[in-house]
Write a structure and sequence with these properties.
The complex is a heterodimer.
Chain A (H helix, E strand, L loop, with lengths): L8 H9 L5 H35 L11 H14 L5 H25 L6 H24 L3 H11 L8 H20 L1 H7 L3 H6 L4 H23 L5 H13 L3 H25 L8 H20 L1
Helix pairs in contact in A: 1-2, 2-7, 2-8, 2-10, 2-11, 2-12, 3-4, 3-5, 3-10, 4-5, 4-10, 7-10, 7-12, 8-12, 11-12, 12-13
Chain B lengths: L1 E8 L9 E8 L4 E5 L6 H8 L5 E8 L2 E2 L5 H7 E4 L11 H6 L14 H13 L15 H14 L4 E5 L7 H16 L3 E5 L3 H7 L2 E6 L2 E6 L1 H4 L2 H8 L3 E5 L6 E5 L2 H4 L5
Parallel strand pairs in B: 3-8, 3-9, 6-7, 7-8
Antiparallel strand pairs in B: 1-2, 1-4, 4-5, 9-10, 11-12
Classes of the chains: A mainly alpha, B alpha/beta.
């Protein structure tokens, strides 16, 4: 299998199924395997978060990264680390708080502009909140030691380079139930996607249902940010591709998004660590290189 | 049955109440039409019904119970709403779209039953879009979409229908077909509450009319009670006459050219 050290498929199998204590065995079991599993979790989380946000915002260009949700999560997480916490649960909680603050700010700005779910206003205020979040992270890092700054910057660009089983262990219990909740609410998302009044007429408490979906989608995005930093555009690309096949009903779309998102981030991470091996490209750069052209293409077809 | 009693509703940022002491009844077996100029409070009435605008006073009742006491899902089993605007941003087939209203009758993880499919088929048929059932929502015309929305409300199988401008974008034939459909639904025992700009069609199909102006009920009652030239002229701020339609003799409003309104203009 590819990477800065090439390991044969047979050796990977041996490493995963037996107590192989060779160097390759250790690389597969303790470095590569958790990295792939974490990539799958991050991809599934981002894609489901994007699908749900697009549904409730009635906007096929919504994405946790573009809406500033991920940026907010990054601020929360960096602040938590700067305050001296190492406990992943606490960092994740701080990330979640940051994500919720960001999404509240973005929607508040859009509401102030009286633009409702206008795609341009939402994306623009998302980018602004993201830029503001970025500035906050920089300010926080001023006092931090040089090593920490380097680590934080690397993480801001999105990376699975430091993935361990410990990361998988605390990320999975956040992403799996949150994703399951979104699937459970899939029907409500179907109705919310028609508009608040139509949803209300079809028996949904629109504000409450939308708020739940927002918070859960933000939690998903925050968990991925704490695990892998800022990985943009997965939540944008995947739902748009998947909808063509899974249709417009959100339960099917969410499940398909989770699978496709997991596959996309595994592949993107493979690209990130092999193209310039033994150097690594930031994962966020790989997804952005795919996502930005996709965004423009989608914007052209949707307008 | 929908009953509105002395409702006062005001938006937080507004200077005056959008609804100011409005009362009306929409009874089973009748088409009740709410008419009035833009900004008269018609759409606020729909929002008040859905509990989406706070009421300062008064009550909206569904089957003799205040709407606030119904849970949203119980309410949706009694009254189907076709709001003014509704988008299917994520394309579905028209059948799938119409079937969304069946969520109202199923618990969260229950699969589609034969009764659900039958209701969807009947609704597609009644709204005249059965042959478009497999067409995607992003590939239908404005008029077809409007009829699909009515089908969606019919598939909800409720005793009351509340429609906000359901014939926007429809040509004459399709508009007439919708009014005929609403009329036959009322004859079949449903309460149909219709918000419309189409005074002349309303005058031919409705049993009761309610004329709103700046949040007040200016007049209400039978079609003949409401289709009065002097009142309508004042409310719409435009010169008009009331004649009779040649086929059924219903009162028909004809707006005049503004030149004849001020003949003394230099």
């Amino acid at each position: 299998m590819h990477g800065s050290v090439d390991i044969s498929a047979a050796a990977v199998w041996r490493a995963l199924t037996s107590e192989d204590s060779s160097t390759n065995g250790v690389i597969v079991r303790l470095i590569r395997a958790p990295r792939v599993v974490l990539a799958m979790l991050v991809g599934a989380g981002l894609a489901m978060s994007g699908t749900a946000l697009q549904g409730v915002l009635r906007n096929a260009l919504a994405d946790p990264y573009l809406l500033g949700v991920s940026g907010g999560a990054a601020v929360g997480a960096v602040l938590a680390v700067a305050l001296g916490t190492q406990a992943p649960a606490f960092v994740a909680l701080a990330g979640f708080a940051g994500a919720v603050a960001a999404v509240t700010a973005v929607l508040g700005v859009a509401r102030l502009a009286q633009a409702g779910a206008d795609v341009r206003v939402l994306v623009l205020s998302g980018l602004l909140v993201g830029a503001f979040a970025n500035a906050l992270v920089m300010v926080t890092l001023v006092a931090a030691p040089a090593d920490a700054v380097r680590g934080a910057l690397w993480w801001m660009m999105g990376s699975l380079g430091a993935a361990s089983w410990r990361d998988v262990l605390w990320t999975a219990p956040l992403i799996v139930p949150a994703g399951a909740l979104l699937i459970h609410w899939g029907r409500n998302i179907d109705l919310l996607a028609l508009g608040d009044e139509a949803a209300a007429g079809l028996g949904v408490n629109a504000e409450q249902a939308a708020r739940r979906v927002f918070l859960t989608a933000s939690l998903l995005a925050a968990a991925t940010v704490v695990a892998a930093g800022l990985v943009g555009f997965v939540g944008l690309i995947v739902p748009n591709l998947v909808r063509r096949m899974a249709g417009g009903r959100h339960r099917a779309t969410l499940v398909a998004s989770a699978l496709a998102g997991a596959a996309l981030v595994v592949v993107a991470d493979l690209v990130a660590r092999t193209v310039r091996a033994p150097l690594e490209i930031p994962l966020g750069a790989v997804t952005a290189l795919m996502g930005v052209p996709f965004f423009f293409a989608r914007m052209r077809t949707s307008s | 049955m929908i009953r509105v009693r002395d409702v006062v509703a005001q938006y937080p940022s507004a200077k005056r109440a959008a609804l100011d002491g409005v009362s009306l009844d929409a009874l089973r077996g009748e088409v009740t039409a709410v008419v009035g100029p833009n900004g008269s409070g018609k759409s606020t009435l729909v929002r008040a019904f859905l509990g989406r605008v706070p009421l300062q006073r008064g009550v909206v009742e569904i089957d003799d119970r205040p709407q606030a006491q119904w849970s949203p899902i119980e309410r949706a089993r009694r009254v189907a709403v076709v709001p003014q605007r509704e988008d299917a941003l994520f394309a579905l087939s028209l059948r799938e779209y119409v079937a969304l209203s069946r969520y109202v009758h199923r618990s969260s993880w229950m699969r589609e039953r034969a009764s659900d499919r039958a209701a969807v088929d009947a609704a597609l048929q009644a709204a005249g879009v059965a042959d478009l059932a497999e067409r995607r929502t992003d590939a239908v015309s404005g008029g077809e979409w409007q009829r699909a929305r009515i089908a969606r409300a019919l598939a909800q199988e409720t005793d009351c229908l509340l429609l906000d401008e359901p014939t926007t974008f429809l040509d004459i034939a399709h508009e007439m077909a919708v009014f005929e459909l609403l009329h036959s639904l009322a004859l079949g025992g449903k309460a149909v509450l219709l918000v419309s700009h189409q005074l002349n069609l309303v005058a031919r199909f409705a049993q009761r009319m309610v004329l709103l102006h700046e949040g007040h009920v200016v007049s209400s009652g039978t079609v003949a009670d409401v289709m009065q030239a002097a009142v309508l002229e004042k409310v719409y701020a435009w010169p008009l006459v009331i004649t009779r339609d040649p086929a059924v003799g219903a009162p028909t409003l004809v707006p005049l050219r503004s030149a004849s309104w001020r003949p003394s203009r230099p």
